[in-house]
Design a protein that fits this description.
By secondary structure, the protein is an alpha+beta fold. The protein is 30% helix and 23% strand. Helix 1 (16-27) runs parallel beside helix 4 (125-137).
Length: 557
Amino acid sequence: MPQEMRADVLVVGSGPVGMVLAMDLASRGVDVIVAERRAPGEPPNVKCNHVSARSMEVFRRLGVVEAVRNTGLPADFPNDCAYRTTSTGLELSRIPIPCRRDRYTATGGPDTWWPTPEPPHRINQTFLEPVLFAQMSAKPGIRVLNRVAVEGFEQDREGVRATVERLEGGGTFHIACRYVVGCDGGRSTIRRAMGARLEGTPVVQRVQSTFIRAPDLIDRIGQPAWMLLSLNPRRSGTVVAIDGREEWLVHNHLHEHETEFDSVDRDWAIRTILGVGPEFRYEVISQEDWVGRRLVADRFRNGRAFLCGDAAHLWIPYAGYGMNAGIADAVNLSWQLAAVIRGWAEEGMLDAYEAERRPITEQVSRFAMGHALAMMRQRGGVPANIEAPGPEGDAARARLGQEAYDLNVQQYCCGGLNFGYFYPASPVIAHDGAEPPAYTMSEFTPSTVPGCRTPHLWLKDGRSLLDAMGPGYTLLRLDPALDTAGLEAAAARAGMPLTLLDLDGEDARAAGYDHPLVLSRPDWHVAWRGNAVPADPEALIDRLRGASTAATRRIAA
């Protein structure tokens, strides 16, 4: 290995966020080095179990969605969330979620309405990471360095020089790059080197988690489910099916007064949550204890250094929000870095990353914490007669089952968090004064208000809008008679990639389009909309590409 290597971007960390960032950058013609402490193939912790619809859309664009979709639980294993007194006990309610075999065809239920060609996918990170690593390693423009640690970096107006240690001997070397991105987790070296710090609530909840092998459990639980949530007065907990056969992750949600991970006997808690006796045999593969937090970095950028994923924000990992928010960070930052590196955008473009992503992660972290507190209250309020026979017990079970369903269906079928968020304060979006529609964890209204997610629709030829849009900006035109040559020419003069796509006006209006021209960004957020091309199209293009003069120029509707 040479004493100095060069690349456009150094990505520190090859978890899912770092790998998506590297693949997206490479797809845009950027030369990338990925630095990772682990050896090739070294498995991650058993953490995230869910890939959101927005993340699956990203995998579709990167050409890896089929490999991801075909991995994980058995194809016919129910992805349901079942609420029971114990994992093997009485069922209180069930949130039906299609198995991966039926994901594209299922109808009915709360989790089949997704306005996208790629609904969510339940897959544990131990299966997801090897798929992404194989795909990333095969792509041109990416060099992966394993068993190395980035110790720090220096930066100036010309670039970044990172110092890297070889973990298996051989001293240190340097990587010279234009930008460095820390995707290196909650203990991020890059965050510390940037001078950034995490702020928020350091402890929301402690969870004693155990990864076990229990081949006999599948036959004891009756109708299987991806997630089994136990609610009883003795010990409530969550059991996640990892491989659909014999591997399970058992979460024992500690009470507020249980301040240490060994506050509760681990074996007793596992058996109580599962609802099994001393004769039941299982093997502990690993202990995966964790602290639920709500922490967001006070900055996501310092000059040429950026943070993505857990390096920038940590919160309770309900429904995979953490990893999926990190993937959203990565694709937001990627196209902006590529635009500057490829020369069609100004450095001012990069001011948008923190302005767009930090408020969203702050908001989602509060969503996650609020939901965690509500679930803690529910687990702490299980009635004593929940397992009693007869009408009284039946009534208690029906009531708690409905409450559990109502509270949690919004978490697992979270359309609002996927498609409702918007960027109201971005310097590279041409805001027009309209208020974006409000959204909740589960519900949203498709909108072309600048900053919102570009509404999805299916084209007359059967293609998804996402597949028809270009890799750069896409000008969506509902009326082919509108003359867009001025805007196209202004983009061409600036070198900004722009594709014109005509939509069926009736279909588009039904999908939420209320202007005949909508300009969609590379990350599928609305950058501008209008009834005609602006009188000064150069001003719009300057605004979108981060030119310093754009803020003082008028963009006519």
